[in-house]
Amino acid sequence: MRTGFYQYRPVFGKVTRNVRKVVRTLCDVEADLIVLPELAFTGYYFRDRAEALALAEDPRRSDTVDSLVALCREKDFYLVTGFAERQHDKCFNSALLIGPEGLVHTYRKLHLFNQEEDWFDPGDVPLQINTVRDVRIGIMICFDWVFPEVARILALLGADILCHPSNLVLDYCQRVMLSRCLENRVFAVTANRYGSDRRPHGELRFTGRSQVVAPDSEILARATAQREALQIIDMDTDKARNKYITERNDVIADRRPDYYAQLLATRPEPA
User: Fold this and answer.
1) Within a domain: residue 271?
2) Which CATH number do you get for residue 25?
3) 29 — phi, psi (to 5°)?
4) Active-site residue 142, yes or no?
C-alpha cells in the first residue's frame, strides 16, 4: 500500500481555491491512499455556527466532492479528507473516504474540541472499517486521539491503518499516536495542517508535523512544523495483522474485557 499525507495551509473560506490547490498538487502523485487535513477546504476557526453552516456542503451534492472524485478516477487512488458537512440544519466536522467509485463513507467526529462545540453537532456515525485494495482502514478526526477507545475500537474491528485528518493546535498528539499504534499494533497517518487562521475574533496557529507511524511506534515519515509537505511511503500492512508485542503476548487476544465494565459507565465510581 502506497500511502501518506499532504500537509498544507488552507486559506480560510476560500473553498474553491483550496480544492484547486489540492487537485493541482496531487495530480502527478502515484499512490493508493492519501490523507488530507481536517476541514481541509473551509479552514477551521469559524466565527460562529452560522459561518460554519454557510461554508459547509452536503457531500452528496458538492462541487468539492465532485472535483475530488474526478481526481481519484484520473489517478486511481483514494482520499481521506476532512470536510465541513451540512445536513439540513445540522453541521458536522466530518471526514470523507473518496475513491474512483465516488463517495465511499462519511465519518462524523465523535469528540469535539473546545469551540467546535459551538459550531458543530456531535458525531452520530458509529466507528467502522472500510476496505481499500484489501487493506482495512479506520477513520478518526483530530481530538479523537485523546480518547484511546477510538483507536482500540477501530483496531478491534480489524483496522490496519488509522487515517487521522487533523487541525492540531496542541503539542501532544504526535507523541501520543506512537502509543496508539503500539498498543493496537496498527499504522496511523496523521495529516495535520500548518500556518494560522487569522480571523477578526482571534488567531489559531496549527502545529504541522504530519506523520506516518508503524505498529512498533516507528516514525516512518514526518513533516516539519511550518512547511508544506507531501510524503508517500510504501507500507507493509501485513505488519498490522501481527498483534504480538512479544512472542507470547497478543495485544488484542490478551485483553481482559470482563474487568473493563467501568469503561461503559458514564461516570465511573472512584476506587
Assistant:
1) no
2) 3.60.110.10
3) -95, 135
4) yes
Residue 73 neighbours by CB distance under 10 Å: 13
- Tell me which of 21, 75, 85, 109 is the catalytic residue: 109
Task: Read off the pLDDT band of 180 (50, 70, 90).
Answer: very high
Report the relative pairing of strands 161-165 and 135-139 from DSSP bridges: parallel
38 catalytic? Reply is yes
109 part of the active site? yes
Q: Is residue 18 part of a domain?
A: yes
Asked whether 82 and 95 are in contact (CB, 8 A), the reply is yes
Residue 211, helix vs strand vs coil: strand
Pick the catalytic residue: 91, 142, 173, 181? 142
The answer to whether 47 and 78 are in contact (CB under 8 A) is no
Please identify which of the residues 38, 75, 91, 116 carries the catalytic annotation: 38
Residue 137: domain span = 2-264
Question: Where does the pLDDT of residue 112 fall: very low under 50, low under 70, confident under 90, or very high at 90 and above?
Answer: very high
